[in-house]
Amino acid sequence: MGDFGNRFEDAAGKAKEGAGKAAGDKGLEREGKLDQAKADAKDAAERAKDKASDAAEKVKGAFKKK
């Protein structure tokens, strides 16, 4: 989904949460919070993947120098 998709999911979650609060709908509020948590988890996973990829490139580079 990528960064844009995660941001969209987070924004949609915030909108659901706000709508749930305004309407007194606890289920919609929880659903919005869940959407935000999923977007945060996806962002964290993508950052971890990027860091692992960067680390792997550094290791490859170290072996190429020898």
UniProtKB/TrEMBL annotation:
Gene3D superfamilies per UniProt: YjbJ (1.10.1470.10)
Pfam families the UniProt entry points to: CsbD (PF05532)
Chain intervals for the UniProt region annotation (Disordered): 1-66
Source organism superkingdom: Bacteria
Biased composition (Basic and acidic residues): 1-60
Database matches in SUPFAM superfamilies: Hypothetical protein YjbJ (SSF69047)
Ranges for domain CsbD-like: 7-54
Family: Belongs to the UPF0337 (CsbD) family.
Protein name: CsbD-like protein
